[in-house]
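Archive maintenance. Older records in this collection stored only the sequence; we are now back-filling the structure field for every entry so that each record is complete. The fields below show one back-filled record exactly as it appears after the update. Entries are processed alphabetically, and Zn(2)-C6 fungal-type domain-containing protein is next in the queue.

ARCHIVE ENTRY
Title: Zn(2)-C6 fungal-type domain-containing protein
Organism field: Lithohypha guttulata
Length field: 683
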Amino acid sequence: MEADAGSKIETNTSGPILPKACENCRIRKIRCNRQNPCSNCETSGINCRPAAKTTEQRSRVLLSANYEKQIEQINDRLTGIEDAIKTLRLTPVSPNNLPESGLSSGSDVSRSQITTPTAFEGASSFTSQAIQASQAAGRSLERLSGSAEVVDALSSLRNLVKPAGFGIIKHDLRLGTSVLPRVLPEIQLLPAQFVLTLLQEFRTRISALFLAYAFRDHKQLERLCQQIYFPTEPVTLASLTLMNGMIFYMIKELLFEGSYGACKDYDLKSYHDQAERNFHLGVETYEVFTHPSLESTKVLMLAMLKAQEEGKPLLAWTFASTGCRQVLNLGYHRKASLRNDPVGLAEDKRQVFWTFYMVDKNLSLNMGYSSTLQDNDIDAEYFCCSSDPGIAPWDKAALAMVEISRLQGLIYEKLYSRQALETSPEVKAQVINELSPQLQRWYEQWIKVDSSSSYLPTFFFIIYGAFDVVYYSVVTTMHRAATPSNTSVEITSACYEAAKKSLQAHLHFFPSFKSYGDAEILGSYVAWILLYASWTPLIVVFLHAIASSNREDVRLLEETEISLEPLKNLNQQSEQVYCLCKIFCKLAKAFVERRSTFVGSYNPQQDMVVIPQQDLQEFHHNLPTGTQSMPITQAVNWAEAPDPQVPNFDGSEMDGMSMFLGNWFGNQPVSNLWNMDFTENLE
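Back-filled structure field:
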């Protein structure tokens, strides 16, 4: 092998070395014939001792400056790696040595180095069936002496179709690979010293993010911060976005509690806004939506929950459906996919999956969409309930939410889906008879959940304290599907009672939330109670009122309207709920005062209302003058056609109501509420 051009090799170039005189002759200083034994020693009769061999001169390599430079560079790199590993420990890090600038350029965030997981494929896929075929062929080959050609072909087949060989290829995540965005979002990280202080603060207190948002690995944020602030490998956009989302919620929690601890000297509001901006920038990118990973699913989960909290159910549905597709791609819905994962990682994945499941089923029923996660394709195990008495109530409540979400999914699938709408009333009645006791058993178990020992009891009450409103709303929606025919609507006694209990539960629990005098708490009530429930009860009570001229119903609607008024300015959706309630209240009061019972037939013995479609036509014709020629399902502006017979009612509130009721009479959940605007005519 040739030596490097920059090196010089020196070797011994002398000829063969002659044997030396033996030791005896050298001592006696006489001539030796250099034989072994020599003639002198033989003559003297002594043992001849050959001379000691000299060490052979070895070739010596003289290193050039180039070699020395390379070795020095390697030593420097090893030293740098050792130093970086040492700094990964957060506690000994010196505050003065922390980096202050973050990832302000897209070049700092890796796109090409994203590790793509193995894609899950079901039993019907070509890959799964090819694996089964290769296994069957292998078993047959074991019983036969196959040729080398057959063995080689079978080996190639196994290598080709093994699950790891069908991972998600990065090129498959884009429509084209030649044109890629060169710059990722301009994300400026928060100061590292503040982040370190925040982490230290939450080492001494438990976070609602850990209890209520499926982030049970409380060390995850620390690991993310280490990876991003002290990177030893490329940073992914999903990790960067997830870190900012978690920091945003933790700062939000500090601001809500008003107890800042070690963070009291920082501008928390400014950092809160910056973390929120960073999170938004990361969420609204192609990578997060199309690169399935555990970090991406958690980003979408936080985005889904944040959209729900902001009163944006349509946006929440977008994030939920995308997240559901990702957990399906990753195989979180199958227990076999998690079998080889460490216990903690498997639990983490289960928490994420069942959180998406809950929101998916709830929004499916409330908005009238088919859910993404289908029960007939799920065998994932539930996450475990903690043995910690402070965490256990949160786990029990979350598992209860999974169960009622499953029932919500069954209600939509069996009573409101396109296929269910074509079934006979007898079949629907049978379904209701099967689901009703299941809901009752769920509620009996729900009220047994003891939260007295839970951590953060205020947060627990905010999220779950008024869940009776949601429960009775679900029961109302289920009974609402009972119709004698496709041309009429039947409000049974059970449906009406559930609707009343839902509104009464709201009136019972809302004063407790209002007493806090905090806009954040009221916003949480709107997000997780008012908007998490269907407002079918409001319509049921309204129709019962105008069909039976029931003044108690009118009073209940009036009280509900008054209670909702403080919430109308929190967000657009809460304003729409308030305006809808105000419109129904005015209409019900007007018709009951006039003793008009022309809408449907009312059976006082059974407390049942049946409203045929022709009665809806009659109801439409008795609305303010000048609107009778309009179709029922058309949004109409009645502001110019007041009804002099109805005091304090000028008809302007009815804009869009005919469309709304028309769709509701078509056996659909109250899904059009979020697409309509009732506020313009109430100002």
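Update note: The chain is about 55% helix and 5% strand. The first strand starts at residue 8 and ends at 10.
Entry marked complete.
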